[in-house]
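Customer escalation, tier 2.

The customer says the design service returned an amino acid string that "doesn't look like it belongs to this structure." They asked us to rerun it and document both sides in this ticket. The original structure tokens are below, unchanged.
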């Protein structure tokens, strides 16, 4: 979703919104704290056409075509609402339900399913034994030495997946629940407001950075999606503050919870935590958000 324009009057914004609606372009009008009204375009693929209509509207807002569009949009919405009400008891539009605000992004959902599956496979291994998890750690044994050639023994032998798979393992049910809950919200926000492709690239990039950082500091035996979660959090937090048109943002309470937990983990009160992975993910996501906002400007 992208911001198209800002107007002082709601009726002005809604008039252009009606014209977009007639052209088959979904839009939304929101008020701002400072006063005024923002017009958003849902699908970036329609942004260029919407900007053309905006240019025409700015040149001649009283043009007859916009007045006709306003009347026609009202008729279409009324007719569409009536038809939807009639069809609702008999049919369910799965596509629209999937695209709704409450649905989980497809890549996010896939990662959650895989993570839960890995947790179930490794459940009995938490107390000992490594039938499955020994193939998922970043290395199957500690480095032979502190010299670089002693690092990444299994990865250098061709097991490249190990650079990413530690994020799929979790040390307990609440560890899994915490990470999956935040991944659901943060990952879906990026998929819906930006794109699934961006989330895929960001997921693997942040997983790589956070896993490698933790491995270099503490060795291969660490697990959890927290580094990736903090990476997505850092990206949304910084990008939303610097680029409101991105359509992303976090509530102060969400920021307080995430940063409070981040600091609490570093105190050692939470026990052995992959704090370096948290930090690596957070810094990577924040830098990504900063760069994206600067490029947008």
């Amino acid at each position: 979703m992208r911001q198209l324009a800002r107007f002082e009057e709601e009726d002005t914004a809604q008039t252009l919104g009606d014209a977009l609606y007639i052209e088959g372009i979904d839009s939304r009008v929101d008020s701002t704290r400072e006063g005024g009204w923002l017009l958003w375009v849902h699908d970036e693929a329609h942004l260029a056409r919407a900007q053309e209509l905006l240019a025409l509207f700015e040149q001649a807002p009283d043009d007859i075509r916009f007045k006709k569009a306003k009347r026609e949009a009202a008729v279409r919405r009324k007719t569409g609402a009536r038809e939807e009400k009639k069809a609702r008891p008999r049919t369910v539009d799965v596509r629209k339900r999937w695209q709704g605000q409450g649905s989980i992004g497809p890549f996010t959902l896939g990662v959650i399913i895989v993570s839960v599956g890995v947790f179930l496979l490794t459940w009995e291994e938490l107390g000992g034994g490594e039938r499955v998890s020994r193939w998922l750690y970043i290395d199957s044994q500690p480095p032979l030495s502190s010299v670089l050639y002693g690092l990444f023994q299994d990865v250098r032998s061709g097991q490249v997946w190990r650079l990413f798979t530690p994020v799929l393992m979790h040390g307990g049910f609440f560890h899994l629940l915490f990470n999956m809950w935040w991944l659901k919200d943060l990952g879906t926000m990026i998929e819906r407001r930006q794109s699934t492709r961006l989330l895929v690239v960001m997921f693997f990039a942040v997983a790589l950075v956070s896993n490698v950082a933790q491995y270099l500091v503490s060795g291969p035996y660490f697990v959890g999606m927290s580094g990736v979660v903090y990476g997505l959090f850092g990206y949304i937090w910084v990008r939303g503050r610097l680029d409101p048109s991105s359509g992303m943002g976090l509530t102060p309470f969400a920021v307080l919870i995430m940063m409070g937990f981040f600091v609490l983990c570093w105190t050692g009160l939470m026990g052995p935590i992959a704090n370096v992975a948290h930090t690596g993910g957070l810094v990577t996501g924040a830098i990504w958000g900063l760069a994206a906002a600067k490029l947008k400007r």
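Tier 2 assessment: The sequence is consistent with the input. The beta strands are 2-7, 27-31, 37-41. Residues 2-91 form a domain with the Alpha-Beta Plaits fold (CATH 3.30.70.1530). Sent an explanation to the customer and offered a walkthrough call.
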